[in-house]
Automatic annotation (TrEMBL):
Residues 205-296 form the Peptidase M20 dimerisation domain. It comes from Haloactinomyces albus. This is Peptidase M20 domain-containing protein 2. GO terms for cellular component: cytoplasm. GO terms for biological process: folic acid catabolic process. GO terms for molecular function: dipeptidase activity; para-aminobenzoyl-glutamate hydrolase activity. InterPro entries: Amidohydrolase, Bact_exopeptidase_dim_dom, Peptidase_M20, Peptidase_M20/M20A_hydrolases, Peptidase_M20_dimer, Xaa-Arg_dipeptidase. Belongs to the peptidase M20A family. Coiled coil: none annotated. The lineage of its organism: Bacteria, Bacillati, Actinomycetota, Actinomycetes, Actinopolysporales.
Length: 444
């Protein structure tokens, strides 16, 4: 029997042989950015690679997702290697699409390339593995363009606002046992960071409705919706000291409508809010306090308030037994001194947190050659060898560890990662966090 080390050496040699193609693919996606659920062209580019590899694929999953299965010699377990497809919106980014403002300011182009690279490396050894590998290009990781996504939801085209959440709901992860996905990070060192937790989030779309009137002639006839909103924001701020540091609560708001003319007291005012926290319990606690603060604004002015709460991401807790596998391979490849095991807790979020509710996940980070803050107009992948070729290798080597020798590595990870939610329970959890509530401020 071929040893795992021998298989890994063959996998890495193949990835090296294909390195130029992997780098070129990452660069091609970077120059053709598309935002979530709109990645039609990006999906076509991934499909072209699958076709060149001779793989059968399924497409149009949750709109734009694409998935190809590479069968092993026996099919005991399935490991998926994921690549994001979507970009952000930053119109003054050097690689922004001039028409849409879409830009790869989160490095997801390299994630699509590392998925392809891992697939290219594993393809020649699949008939020596006891399980399948699924290459999965997944849409809409960034939680943006909410109005548009809400409209899709109201039209029945999607239920959840994020790609992986929607794909889980649709059953597209039912045939997968565990997932590996590598995000980009800073310039490096470290060249790779293995593990870190991340906040979950809830979105609120808030609308205050009062009564408009001439601001000079008869302001006494008005109910100022904008003042109800600003009072509510102050009440939210008064809550901030009640959050535990360890829960990492972040509450952000953006006033999207505050009135139309200074001579007319606004009869309606709107804002978007994002509430982030480290656990579902802390998300719910912060959400209750925010709702109370919103009602306070409505009571003070006698306005109505409608609060539409939509689940964003669930908190990320990577599965350490799976991270152990990726960690060992990264150290073999990059050297101990270039690999950081724990990256700490991130205030930001990812829908890999959602996936981690239903299966073991590892979500390492790889250097990008760029030290600018992520989501800024200066952040893009400068070095696709660091950001795509390296993770292609350590994810593919990990797949060998998981699936060779009767897939015993995968069995161990499943056994040691502890219980996961079934699809129905996961969907029920997200639906429980969603709500639409209306309060009248003038009720006694
Ligand atoms: Zn991002
Ligand atoms: Zn990202």
């Amino acid at each position: 029997m071929t040893s795992k080390d021998e298989l890994k050496a063959r996998v890495c040699a193949e990835i090296d042989r294909q390195a130029e193609r992997i780098v070129a693919f990452g660069d091609e996606i970077m120059r053709n950015p598309e935002t979530g659920f709109r990645e039609h062209d990006t999906a076509r580019r991934v499909i072209k690679q699958f076709v060149d590899m001779g793989l059968e694929y399924r497409s149009g999953l949750a709109g734009t997702g694409v998935k190809a299965r590479m069968p092993g010699r026996s099919r005991r377990r399935t490991v998926s290697i994921l690549g994001e497809l979507d970009s952000l919106l930053i119109s003054d980014h050097p690689y922004a699409d001039p028409g849409t403002g879409a830009a790869h300011a989160c490095g997801h182009n390299a994630m699509a390339a590392s998925m392809l690279g891992a697939g290219l490396g594993l393809q020649p050894v699949m008939d020596e593995l006891d399980g399948d590998v699924v290459l999965f290009g997944v849409p809409a990781e960034e939680c943006i363009e909410l109005d548009w996504r809400m409209a899709l939801r109201e039209a029945g085209d999607l239920e959840f606002m994020l790609g992986k959440a929607e794909l889980i709901r649709l059953g597209e992860f039912d045939d997968i046992d565990m997932a590996l996905i590598t995000h980009t990070e800073g310039a490096g060192d470290p060249l790779a960071t293995m593990s870190g937790t991340a906040n979950g989030s809830l979105i609120k779309r808030v609308r205050f409705v009062g009564r408009s009137a001439h601001a000079g002639n008869e302001p006494w006839s008005a109910v100022n919706a904008s003042k109800a909103l600003t009072l509510a924001v102050s009440a939210v701020d008064a809550q901030r000291e009640t959050f535990r540091d360890s829960d990492m609560v972040r509450i952000s708001h953006l006033i999207t409508h505050g009135g139309e003319a200074v001579s007319a007291i606004p009869g309606a005012a709107e804002m978007e809010m994002m509430i982030r926290a480290r656990t579902v319990e802390a998300m719910e606690d912060a959400s209750r306090k925010v709702d109370r603060a919103l009602r306070a604004g409505s009571v003070a002015l006698g306005a109505e308030v409608e609060i539409n709460t939509v689940t964003g991401y669930l908190p990320l807790v990577p599965d350490e037994p799976l991270v152990d596998v990726v960690d060992a391979n990264s150290r073999d490849m990059l050297g101990d001194e270039h690999v950081l095991r724990h990256g700490g807790h991130l205030g930001s979020s990812t829908d890999v947190g959602d996936l981690g509710r239903v299966m073991p996940v590892a979500h390492p980070f790889a250097a990008s050659g760029n030290d600018a803050p992520m989501h800024s107009n200066g952040y893009f992948v400068r070095d696709h060898v660091l950001a795509a070729v390296n993770p292609a290798k350590f994810m593919a080597m990990s797949a060998v560890d998981l699936l060779a020798d009767g897939a015993s590595g995968a069995e161990e990870v499943i056994r040691d990662s502890g219980p996961k939610l079934g699809r129905d329970d996961y969907v029920a959890l997200r639906r429980r966090l969603d709500s639409v509530r209306r309060y009248r401020g003038d009720e006694e």
